[in-house]
Amino acid sequence: MNSPCRYDLKGFSDELGLPLKDTAELFSEFIKEIKDELSKAENVLISNNVEELQRINHNIKGISANFKILDLYEQTCKISKTLKNSCDILSLQSQLNDLFIIYENAVQEITAFFAYHGIDIR
After folding, report:
1. Contact predicate 114/18, CB 8 Å
2. What pLDDT does 90 receive?
3. Which of 41, 83, 86, 98 is the most buried (most CB within 10 A)?
């Protein structure tokens, strides 16, 4: 029986031809990298540096797409549209808050999936 998870982590592992333990290491790095980018985004939003926020959002979008964490990817697409169309700080702040929540939920699910398989990724 598989651990319930919105993300097809086993399929991702199979697609790469890697054992689950090696895939867990990749996801451990994924979690750290996204966390660092989100921390930067929070600081950049305060300074209202739209260009840097676009770069950070682009990085998160690419990483989440590569790892097939689609809800994170979809939220970065929404942020990209806001950055291109209006740069409304309140909207951006709200969308970034949603991105943080999506990230935290993803981390919990990914961690639980690997824990179910006896692998600690923290």
Report:
1. no
2. 86
3. 41
| Residue 76: CATH number of its domain | 1.20.120.160
Place of tokens 């676009």: 54
pLDDT digits (tens, 9 = 90+) for 73-94: 999 999 999 998 877 788 889 9
Reference 69, options 109, 36, 40; nearest CA is 109
Please tell me the distance from the alpha carbon of residue 110 to that of residue 29, in angstroms, as a whole number.
12
* Sites in the chain below the pLDDT cut of 70: 1-3
For 74, the domain range is 9-115
d(C-alpha 99, C-alpha 80), whole Å: 12
How distant, in Å, are the alpha carbons of 1, 43, 75, 76, 80 from that of 25? Answer: 22, 28, 24, 24, 29
First-to-last C-alpha distance (Å) of the chain: 23
Count: domains in the chain: 1
